[in-house]
Amino acid sequence: MHQSNSMEESNQIMLLGTAASPYVNRVQFVLNLKSIKYEFIEENLARKSDLLLASNPVLKKVPVLLQANKPPLCESLIIIDYLEDIYPNVHKLLPSDPLDRAIIRFWANYMDNEVLPLYEKLRCTPHKEGKEAIIKQIIEESSLIEKTHIKFSNGKSYFGGEDVGYLDVVFGSFIGWTRFVENHYNFKIFDRIRTPNLVEWAERMTSHEDIKDVIPREETLMNFYMMIQEHKKPRVV
Question: In this protein, which residues make up the domain named GST C-terminal (predicted)?
Answer without folding.
Answer: 97-235
